[in-house]
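Worked Example 4.2. Consider the chain below.
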Amino acid sequence: MRGTAFYWVREASITDCSVFNNTGGGLAAEYGAILLVKNGRIFNNGYCGLFLSYTGQCVVDNCYIHHNGGPGIFVVESNKFTVKSNKVFNNVSHGINVLYSEGDIKENDVFDNRDWGIWTEGNLSVTVTMNNVSRNKAGGIRMCGEDRHLFLVNRKNIYNNLGPGFVEDTHFPEEHSHQSQDNEISNNKEIGKLNLSIPFCSNCRKSCELRKCEKCFTSAYCSESCQESHWSKHEKICKVLCEKLTYVVTVMLVSNLLLVYVF
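Applying the procedure from the previous section yields the following structure tokens:
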């Protein structure tokens, strides 16, 4: 299946399908769309495997999401999403990346991703339970920013990551609750400094001397012509990052096409 975006369709269901080998992303749902993806494979796409932005009640259930050129699953400002029982692995950026959203991440296997297994930031309310997170190259789970409501992380296995197993860098208002308990955390390796380089051109995919996008720093190009050709694809996510994440991007968030979404 070619990369597909759901904008004006109110509800869509994709079951027992494979989405692969697209030069851009795999699947996207935006602007209030409701999407069910079940028993599928999303792999070998140039950027995000699955992108949810400003959606409601989307469900990703029992899918294999792997070898994509950006995050396996990237969720931005979405309500009541559910990511459950998936295998998310070998993606170039984070396995699961959730920003400013509300929903559940449960019972997933998240492993061998090039950055963090699960990265969350600034969420309204996210529950993270019963996940196995292992062998990710930057670390297991990182929670950062100010979460405004309940953020629960419990009963999970976090092991053999090439970085910290579990990091909380959050600021919780006193009137809101937060729990982190009953985690099995073992054999994770603390590393002195993360590799924040971007290894290849975001347009032509060649490895050479690169220059980063001067607005968001999450994509890089070998020439001005490649940057101009890629802009129509990069423009949307660049705007989101510049509005909300510039202070994080410049400090530590960028790594290997992190958060780059193209359709």
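Residues 195-263 form one domain. DSSP finds two helices and 26 strands in the chain. Compare this with Example 4.1 before moving on.
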